Amino acid sequence: MQTNPDMHTSLLLLATWWLQCHREAEDKSIAQCSFEMCNAPMPSDPRLASWDTCAVCRESVPMQSPTESVCSKGHKTARCCQTLLQTRKMDAAAQKKCALCGAVAVEPGAGMEWGPLLDAHCTFCDGYLVTGL
């Protein structure tokens, strides 16, 4: 599968979130593999790692939450529950919501082939992602 910059950012965000959730894990090879695939260093402190910029002001956005991004100026943007990318950077018409927890998911834009990586379920609660909620 051919990758694109959004896939790289998504992979870095997911790996960083994994590191934050598994700080005590001795085997971090799953995260290390993700960073190597993207030619990026594994952060020494994943709470400070920033692979994304604010959709409003372009400030650096540290990965502190899988559900929203907040830059140093206070701009908040929901994150896609499947890719962790900021939804403000995506087409609003392509957004879906989880029927159970309300998390947002975004259909990939034209030319973004994610293949079987995304499905119709919420990553957080396994609820169905639907349009029009």
Features:
two-stranded antiparallel ribbon; 7 strands; alpha+beta; single chain; 133 residues; 3-stranded antiparallel beta sheet
Description of the molecule:
The protein has 133 residues and is α+β, with helices and mostly antiparallel strands. 20% of the residues lie in helices and 17% in strands. It has 2 helices and 7 strands, in the order H-H-E-E-E-E-E-E-E. The protein has helices at residues 5-21, 29-37, and strands spanning 50-53, 60-62, 68-70, 76-78, 95-98, 104-106, 129-130. A 3-stranded antiparallel beta sheet has the order 6-5-7, with no helix packed on it. A hairpin with a 6-residue loop joins strand 1 (50-53) and strand 2 (60-62). Helix 1 packs antiparallel against helix 2. The longest helix has 17 residues, at 5-21. It is globular and about 40 Å long.
Give a nutshell description of this structure.
This protein has helices at 5-21, 29-37; strands at residues 50-53, 60-62, 68-70, 76-78, 95-98, 104-106, 129-130. Helices cover 20% and strands 17% of the residues.
What is the string of SSEs from the N terminus onward?
A: HHEEEEEEE
Instruction: Tally the beta strands.
Output: 7
Helix percent reads 10-25%
Shape: globular
